[in-house]
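Case study B.
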Amino acid sequence: MAHAATAHHDHQAGHGHDDHGHHHETFLSKYVFSMDHKMIAKQFLITGILMAFIGMLMSVIFRIQLGWPEGTYPWMETLLGKWGKGGKLSPEFYMGLVTIHGTIMVFFVLTAGLSGTFSNLLIPLQLGARDMASPFINMLSYWLFFVSTVLMLASVFVETGPASGGWTVYPPLSALPQAMSGSGLGMTLWLLSMTIFIASSLMGSLNYIATILNMRTVGMKMTRMPLTIWAFLCTAILGVLSFPVLLSAAVLLTFDRLFHTSFYLNEIYIAGAPLAQTGGSAILYQHLFWFLGHPEVYIILMPALGLTSEVIATNSRKPIFGYRAMIGSLLGISVLSFIVWGHHMFMTGMNPFLGNVFMILTLVIAVPSAVKTFNYLATLWKGSIHMTPAMLFAIGLVSMFISGGLTGIWLGNAALDINLHDTYFVVAHFHLVMGAASIFGMLAGVYHWFPRMFGRVMNARLGYLHFWLTLASAYMVFFPMHFIGMDGVPRRYYSFTEFEYMKPWLDLNKFISISAILGSVAQFVFLYNFFNSIFRGEKSGQNPWKANTLEWTAPMDVRLHGNWPGDIPHVYRWPYDYSVPGAVDDFIPQNVSDDELPEAARSVNREQTLAAEAANQEKKEEASTLAFSSLFSKLGFRKG
Amino acid sequence: MAGFDTKQIWKVFFILLAITVLEFLIALTPALEGIRTDYKLAVNLTYVVLTLFKAFYIIAYFMHLKFEKINLIYSIALPPVFVIYCIVLVLYEGGYWNGIREENVTSNQKIEQVENHAPEHH
Amino acid sequence: MSTHSVAANEGKIWDGGNEPFGASYGKLMMWFFLLSDAFTFTALLLGYGALRFSALNWADPDVVFQSAPGIESGAPLVFVGIMTFILIMSSVTMVLAVEAGHRNSKSEVVKWMIWTVIGGAMFLGCQAWEWTHLFSEGASITKNPFAPELVPYIEKFVSQGMSHHEATLKAVNEIPHNYEFTSLFFTITGFHGFHVFSGVVINIVITINAMVGTYQRRGHYEMIEKVGLYWHFVDLVWVFVFTFFYLV
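Model:
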């Protein structure tokens, strides 16, 4: 790793960035082993979309089992072979599908696919940099990610089946190959894939942080960065600090599996005989896993929140409400995410006193989350709203974030969690707040920055169809799950017909399954729209959404490695100068200096108003949140 | 560049050596045997504090962090706060497991006693 | 990397077109990588701490580590003291190489780098000896001859006429016991040893680069500084491993 970093440095020092565009490019160097951040972003996006569809189709298969547990489908045997004997999904493979669905969606789609795509695309373009700090490590990051996806998919095809212990792969189920068929080779491949994924994620994150700190163009102060970049910065910091802990947990788990150590195993009896491995603790794994696992949900969510901020401000033609509060809440969420992991473990037999600590801290997360929600709503308030598909998806995120976030307050309460833990209530909660919300943010990003990637606009009609079908089906799938969960139906069960008390929910389950299939079909509308628009979409022009940020100043038609043909534009203002009184247009791009504006629109005039607003905002913030803004200014940041 | 002069480097080396020697003295001096067994926690905390001193000298002087800009110092020095939090919580948790293990042992002994004595009651 | 540095921005370090941490991107990435790696080691040591706190008994380090080459027993911590000294020494030579790099003195950089490589290799040799010695005493990743619960069995076997060594081997192979201590010891020192090994390899590469004048042509020896950070980090981790496995 260290070596790779240095190898590239030699190259950089040799001939700088500006002559990148003149390299002779072959197909391999342009499309496959590309070091251009825009191409790497597309690679991440397309791999992510592919993985999302695989994960989604898996969910359709197990939803069919849950909705019609007695039914048989001949195609199931054709598709799954021995795992679908007699047209019926086998329980072992059901567990495998649930596990791989979770893993793919959490790590491959919403971590790499979301953060990988948009961090790579937007960090250099919005900051005014020629490329990432180290394009070589960036390329390596993608290809390690690719290798890890291949390994994860390979685990589906091994004879004993894929890893089946749930996406959290708790020992002892995952540690003992004799525990279940999926704990054999499939589990080993899972661990291997995840180790490589962690390396990929680390390389990406280090690059993002170094780029954001060191490569901003002249005038791009930290407080002039778009909120997308702030979100990517916080995400990258979380990734750097939390993924290594999962690495350690995975190393210890691998040793338990391969070398018969007992870090996570204690007093286990198999068929009445005690296992020689003893003296460890399964809860230790959960502590290590969730030390990653909780920041991980913000690694997933924060890029989506950042994209949403940008899309909402642009399409409301209004400055984002509470810019500094938004940054403060991102930082607040980042800090809190490291100290609340135990709320996933209330029911594990963890020390109950720690349960209290975790519960109190967990409920504090509601504060920065609410700040974000209210700021989104306040930005929309009295805006001149343009309902593009991207805007609809961004508003959809806010809706999902609220309805999923509210149940988080229930689940964060240790007493309520006794009843709700491991039921469909939890499934509903995290699918809404982390799954659907982040997917909505990602789709908002795809619709909004599609012109930046391909120079064309996606079809809006199909976009509206996609949005309404997705929104309706997402609520139709996940909202009823709350009721099922409150009745105590556990998640991950293969069949709903085994227990009397679950039977009343069978009809609702059919409804959920039908909605899930509807939602999946809707995604094919997106798939068609995406690939069709790459080749046949309407040409977008330079700045289709009339946005302020720098990425729209770089030429769209020329695929230039280095982004700007001449000098990099300098930055004179924050990115949210929409509808400025006195200005000719309702937007002033960041690279426009005051000299180019009419007298009335100059920032000198507005500075007093803004300063007053900022002072006001600061007071409110300090009163309501944890006074992050003051910490912030102590760390050397200044208002832009 | 500030902070890099050979005199300073050797000075830090001798500090590190002195701390390590001090640790050995605490661990090995026969006269301290009583203190080591009676005040185990205090002795262990002393080791940890001495280790943190060594870590400070390595990071500050060898890794040169002390002479970097204050921003870099903060961004390296602040994140380990999470680690400290995690260490405190998980070690506390380890102590709790220890209590459970001890309980299991005593309750197993009780069960054995009951089982051994059971025939006498019949 | 500062292709667009502008003199006017000096003093306003956060205003863009600048390096706000006064460090190149490569050095920043190395620092944050080390921060990340520190979390990896912390997680491993955390596992060690939690399992040790939860255990009802634990091996006594003064008994486990009482040997050195030529001394079979009765020399607690002597050998690890030598190992620690070697690693700190190699850290010193590394700093001296970095310092020479700041003066662009090629011959001195090469000299100190070679000493650093030798120090790293010696440390690895010491670790190999220590592991081999522990293996010969019956320890492995799943066998812990130092477990206190084995002591009565060993005494029993000795009273049956076996030598202490044979009795230990018999007990460790036949009696179920808690082997967390050796599992953790070999895992964590192994993980650290792997870092030392990769550090030595990287050190060799940059030593050769320095010899053939790559950095001389480049005009600066920042590479030595970056690798130096990694090498000191390895030393730093050892300081903690030493305390928690050998002293506490």
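Chain B touches chain A at residues 70-71, 74, 79, 82, 85-86, 89-90, 92-93, 96-97 (CB under 8 Å). The remaining cases will be described in the next quarterly update.
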